[in-house]
Amino acid sequence: MAGDATTIARPYAEAVFARAVETDKLDLWSDMLELLKMAAQDPALAGLIASPKLTKAQMSELLLDIGGARLSEEGQNLVHTLVANRRLSVLPEIADLYERRKADHEGTLDVHVTSAFALKPEQAQQLAAVLKQKLGREIRITSDEDPDLIGGFHLRAGDMVIDGSVSGQLGQLANELGI
User: Fold this and answer.
1) Class of domain 108-177
2) What is residue 165's three-state secondary structure?
């Protein structure tokens, strides 16, 4: 199902991205899409989006009220278009695809590191420098802790995943031994 949502969301994300580049409003669109994504993922609102109880006009009005002054006229037009085409449920995918296109356009890459222990700022800087040299892009690192990794780290950068954790290595060894 996620593949279907991505397929449906892609043309909207591409159109929004093209318009954002054309008008030089990449950050404004990021903010608007993030707001709409959060609204669409709210459990109460997600139930309303999936329910036929509200008319299209009521749904548009609800989202425009939530967005308020944070939605530009073009952002409001996007809401109307998504409501008219019954595509509100793919707002999270639209926002995610847009952010990927924006990162590609700006030459940046978001990297998430999960490590057994807190990543120190100097470690994050060293990792960013190595990845920038290897990947040729500016690197933005986010991190969190997961003691279950035992040691090492798990790195995700776009489609690239590196599992250098002790638990990952033990799992691989167990798999090779047929345990």
Assistant:
1) alpha beta
2) coil
